[in-house]
Amino acid sequence: MTSRPRFSFHLPRPVLALVMLGVLTMLATAPGQAQTFTVLHNFTGGASGDQPYAGLTMNASGDFYGTTQYGGVGSDGGHGVVFRLSREGSGWVETPLYAFQGGSDGEYPLGGVVIGSDVALYGTTSGYNGYGSYGTVYRLTPPLSACVSVLCPWRETVLYRFSGG
Q1: Which H/E stretch holds residue 57?
Q2: What is the maximal distance between C-alpha atoms in the chain?
Q3: In which region does residue 79 sit, left (phi positive, over 0), alpha (psi from -120 to 50) or beta (all else)?
Q4: Phi and psi at residue 24, in whole multiples of 5°?
Q5: What is the tens place of the pLDDT at every residue in 39-54?
Q6: Considering the entire predicted model, what is its pTM?
């Protein structure tokens, strides 16, 4: 009978200690907390907007800003809304900031907005002035004076109109 060579594998003590420490750390770590899902706002169409498509942007005060693809003004269901969600008590209140008219101001914002260093909101629309249009880049600024009505629209400036091609 021939003897087979035996292989032995030994970890150096420092490596073995690190492996054991890692295993003990994994066993001792508390399991992660379950995530919860909370609806902040249900869109109802009309002036408040309809069909939000993009994500939200949060400002330093904890307010959220976003867009809806449809809604706003007009008998055709509207051309999109830029809105703010603000915490009020234990709930959230939606405030429409701007309703696209569907003309040269743009229509159907599919992307969200970003907050510029000038506190203005910047975003894009997917169209303007009907079919065959290619969208806009816009800037929204808050009113210059205090609002006297519940709806206080922000002022839009079209920065660029895409021409296609």
Answers
A1: strand 57-58
A2: 103
A3: alpha
A4: -65, -35
A5: 888 888 888 888 998 9
A6: 0.74
